[in-house]
Amino acid sequence: MVTEQADVVVVGTRCAGTAAAIALAGAGRSVIGLDSSAFPSDTLSTHLLWPSGVFELAELGALPRVLALGAPPLTTGLADGAGFTVRAPFGRYGTIGYSMCVRRAGLDAALVDTARAGGAQIRERSRVVALVWAGRRVVGVRYLDRNGNERRIDARLVIGADGRRSTVARLVGAHAPYRIEPSGRSCVFAYWHDTSLEWRSVAAQWRSGDLLGTAFPCDGGLLLCLIQPPRDRAVRVAGQIERQYRRMIAELPGLSDRLDGCTLRTRVRSAVDLESYFRRSGGPGWALPGDSGHFKDPVTAQGIRDALRYGRLLGESVARVLDDPQALDRQVSDWEMRREAECLEMYQYTNRLARGEEMTPIEVELYRAGVADPALGAAMMEVVSRIREPRHLMRSGRKLAIAAGALARAGDRGAAWRAIVRDAHDEISERAQRSMARPNAARHARGWVGQG
Fold first, then answer.
1. 3-state class (DSSP) for residue 279
2. 224 and 161 share a domain?
3. Of 110, 299, 331, 445, which sits 20 to 30 A from 117 (CA to CA)?
4. Are residue 332 and residue 195 in the same domain, yes or no?
């Protein structure tokens, strides 16, 4: 068996994996990335990059290649529901004040090209079959190359950026999440030829009944239209997917109007039985950025940004300590705790939106207030852009006014009271989870740091 040496092996070279590889190679480390796919190739995704995600592309040096794909800058966000349409410009995250929707085949290929240009080796059609261990420490991988030959790479760190069904997570015994929330929604999406120039700068979402639909202009003159029906309306029969997809579009009048004159250009794809989670994401000689370690429901479109950001931060944090196993373990542990601390609130916020139900009286009143107050509408966009934490969306006085308005205007006051009580319970429970997250993570980290 052929054996090679590298500082780091990255398993999976899409968003999280290339981000880590770019950071490590930029710090002068030898990096070999392995992916079972060939690029360009597609993958399931909500595709949207809020300003914070575009910022990450810029930080990695990949933005010029991505801009060359031709996706239009999305400068305005629109959220429509219950007869109210909140429209606001996107705020700036660092130097970036726009969103983008980029098809994954082009986006991922641009990231791979950026990693290669920075000095990382990326090997396509290469499938990891085993990890190499020295006691409790991971010290490399065995993989099958594109010709089916088994090879071995010894490394100081193995980064498993290989998605929700991560091979690395399974092999290190971390596949079972320690925090998990089944989504109340599924996904069904396709690309359309976009004929509406006036909408080409708008990222839009519509809610009607228990359905949620989005329209994001993307590269190639196309439009990504994604529907998230409740879990019990999931599209599961292959021969019925397109028919059900079109039927759901018709149930969202605003989205149906947006698609007027547009032509379906691709097959319709679906994802069902989604679960949001945190997995243990670090151990002696290994780490799990991207969906392999943490996944949020697509309803808030945070996955690409978090994969890029925490892949990059992992690479930056470990690059200088790869030659010291104990220091490396501490850095991986600190990185894991940082991701948990920074992502937990958005995870909780996303789980609320993914419940797969009609808008509550509280949500209706929030949309009403967002129309009346442009500053509140802008703040709603800042939450998904990661400029503002969800808990800072409104001051206490505004929350009370919205609750009072919901009670006064709701056709069913009982439903309004139930929504108010549930929101209060959620806030208390979520605050408690956040307060315990870092101490729990620190205790967990002490359990393995230095034992490799």
1. coil
2. no
3. 331
4. no
